[in-house]
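Batch manifest line 163
LIGAND: heme C
JOB: complex structure
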Amino acid sequence: MKNKFLLLFMLVASIALLSACKNREQAPKEKAMEGKPEAAVPKESPPQAEPSQIPKGDAVRGSAKYAQICATCHGETGRGDGPGGITLKPKPRNLRDASYMSARSDEHLFKVIDKGGPSVGKSVFMPPWGGSLSDQDIRDIIAFIREGLCKCTYTGNESKAPY
Ligand code: HEC
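JOB STATUS: finished
ARTIFACT:
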């Protein structure tokens, strides 16, 4: 009877010893990973968006300007369904479409609002607003589009923009 307990004890002890050895074996590997965090990052990381060069505008001010000027065509909620756009072809852009808008940089949005559709190869029915809006107004509207309509930021790779 006593021997049995001794045997059991030795079994448990050797298992404990074995697993302790295993842990020690792994330890140096983990150590080696320390200080090399890039080893854990996959090599093919997705393209990073260039940070916007356009200073951030005020979305609240932008919202008021948007309602005054843009909503007639783009719609009060930005879906491109305003009364002024019904007969237009192509239709005013749905500014809530996050997959489209996140593939458009702030620089691109600034240009199309400032200089109109044709400046970026789009319809002449998207008018240029640079004459009546200040740069700050345009930045405010971009902030409103980003924060209030598409709820998106530029995620990079404008050349791969959908449609
Ligand atoms: C007279 C109608 C009209 C008004 C007013 C108007 N837009 Fe547009 N907008 C359009 C049309 C039409 C298009 C689609 C152009 C195309 O896809 O070729 C467009 C496209 C756009 C686009 C997408 C550009 C792109 O690269 O696809 C943005 C952004 C935009 N408008 C913002 C605005 C803002 C901001 C205002 C207010 C300052 C405004 N628009 C006022 C008709 C209008």
